[in-house]
Specification:
The protein is α/β, with parallel strands linked by helices. The chain has helices spanning 7-22, 53-69, 84-95, 113-121, 135-141, 153-168, 184-197, 213-226, 238-250, 266-274, 285-300, 321-327; strands spanning 43-47, 73-77, 101-104, 126-129, 147-150, 172-178, 201-208, 232-235, 258-263, 279-283, 308-310, 313-316. It has a six-stranded parallel beta sheet with strand order 2-1-3-4-5-11, with helices on both faces. Strands 7-6-8-9-10-12 form a six-stranded mixed beta sheet, sandwiched between helices. Helix 5 links the parallel strand 4 and strand 5. Keywords: Signal.
Length: 342
C-alpha cells in the first residue's frame, strides 16, 4: 500500500506490486461419464449472473476443464449481480441433486451460507470462488469451506492506485465507482486504492454502481458535472470502468481524464488497446473456473488441496494489451497452479 514521492521510487513501487501480482438460470453440462478414477464426480458451479462477461468466463473455464477431465459440470447463476435470492435458490435446488463438489461465488459475504448448510452437512466439498465469505458467519453456521480460489483484490487495488499515481504524476482529483455494498472484493479494492493514493490524490466523490455499466455511466456523468476538474476515475470493475469511459467520451474529456478498472474482460482489454480505458488490472476468471474443477477432481482422487489459492492478476496497459488479447481468456504469462495446469 505504500507509495513514494519521486518518480523512480514510484516506478519501483509499481514494479514490486506487479511482481507480486504475477507470482438467470442456464445449466451447462460438460463431458461424458467420468473415468473410473472418479466415477461419481459431478461438479456444481454457481456464480452471480451471466450478464457480466467476467462470470461467463469463469463458467467457460469450468466447462472446458470438465470436458478435459471427463467430469460433468453444471454452471448456474442468478439473474443479476445483486440477485442473492435467485442465487440462493439455485444452490438450494442443486443441494438436493447428486453433485459431489460445489464451487460458489457469493453476492456478498453472507448470502450463500444458509443454503450451503445442507451441502456441508452431507460432507460435500465446497470451494469458495472469487469473493470471500465472512469467516465469523461461516463458523457460526457450522459450515465447512474446503478451499478458497480467487485473486488478491487488495493487491489489485494497490496496483490500480499506483498506476493512477503514475499517470497523474502524484497529484489530482479522483472519483471512485464502487461495487455492491458489503461485497468483499469491492471493499478490498476500494480500501487499497485509497491507501495507496492517500496524501497525493484527493478522492472527491465515491458512489456505488453495483458493478453495472449503465449505472456507472449515470454516476460518472453526474460526477463530471459536479467536479469539472476531475483528473481520474477508479472503477472497481470493468463494466463500471467502461461506463465511466463512455461518460468521459460523451463529455469530450477522454484526453484529460484517466480511467482505471479491474477485471480484464475482453471488451476492457480492447478499450485499453484503443486508448479509451487507461488500464485494467486483469483477473482471470477463466483460470479460476479451470482451477475449481481441478480442485474438485483432486478431492475426488483422495488428494488434499490448499486451503487458499491465489489466482493470477496483471496490470494491462496500452503497451501489453495486444499480448493480453492474443492469449485471452487465459493469462499471457506463467503462473503457479497448485493443481498442475499452468
Amino acid at each position: 500500500m505504500n507509495h513514494r514521492h519521486n518518480r523512480p521510487a514510484r516506478a519501483g513501487a509499481l514494479k514490486s506490486l506487479l511482481a507480486a501480482a504475477s507470482a438467470s438460470a442456464i445449466a451447462l453440462f460438460a463431458g461424458a461419464p467420468a473415468h473410473a478414477a472418479t466415477p461419481k464426480t459431478r461438479v456444481a458451479i454457481i456464480v452471480r449472473d451471466f450478464g457480466n462477461p467476467y462470470w461467463r468466463a469463469l463458467r467457460d473455464g469450468a466447462v472446458a476443464e470438465g470436458k478435459k477431465l471427463h467430469i460433468p459440470v453444471s454452471v448456474q447463476a442468478g439473474a443479476t449481480e445483486t440477485d442473492s435470492i435467485g442465487e440462493n435458490a439455485k444452490i438450494s435446488t442443486m443441494a438436493n441433486e447428486d453433485f459431489t463438489c460445489f464451487g460458489v461465488v457469493p453476492v456478498n459475504a453472507t448470502n450463500i451460507i444458509t443454503p450451503l448448510i445442507p451441502v456441508s452437512n452431507k460432507h460435500i466439498p465446497i470451494i469458495n470462488l472469487d469473493s470471500g465469505l465472512d469467516p465469523a458467519a461461516v463458523k457460526a453456521a457450522g459450515l465447512t469451506i474446503t478451499s478458497f480460489i480467487g485473486s488478491d483484490n487488495t493487491n489489485a487495488g494497490q496496483i490500480a492506485g499506483a498506476y493512477m499515481l503514475k499517470m497523474l504524476h502524484d497529484k489530482g482529483n479522483v472519483a471512485i465507482l464502487q461495487g455492491i455494498p458489503g461485497e468483499e472484493n469491492g471493499i478490498n479494492r476500494d480500501n487499497a486504492f485509497r491507501s495507496t493514493t492517500a496524501g497525493k490524490l484527493t478522492v472527491v466523490q465515491a458512489e456505488a454502481a453495483d458493478y453495472e455499466r449503465s449505472r456507472a455511466l449515470t454516476e460518472a456523468e453526474a460526477m463530471l458535472r459536479v467536479h469539472p476538474d476531475l483528473n481520474g476515475i477508479f472503477a472497481a470493475n470493468d463494466e463500471m470502468g467502461l461506463g465511466a469511459a463512455q461518460a468521459i467520451a460523451n463529455a469530450g474529456k477522454s484526453a484529460t481524464i484517466k480511467v482505471v478498472s479491474i477485471d480484464g474482460v475482453k471488451e476492457a482489454l480492447e478499450s485499453v488497446k484503443s486508448g479509451k480505458l487507461s488500464g485494467t488490472v486483469s483477473q482471470y476468471p477463466y483460470a479460476e473456473g479451470e482451477m475449481a474443477v481441478q480442485a474438485c477432481h483432486q478431492l475426488a482422487m483422495g488428494k488434499s488441496i490448499p486451503a487458499h489459492v491465489t489466482a493470477p492478476i496483471k496490470l494491462i496497459t496500452p503497451q501489453n494489451a495486444a499480448k493480453a488479447l492474443k492469449s485471452f481468456p487465459r493469462p499471457f504469462f506463467t503462473f503457479t497452479d497448485p493443481f498442475g495446469t499452468p
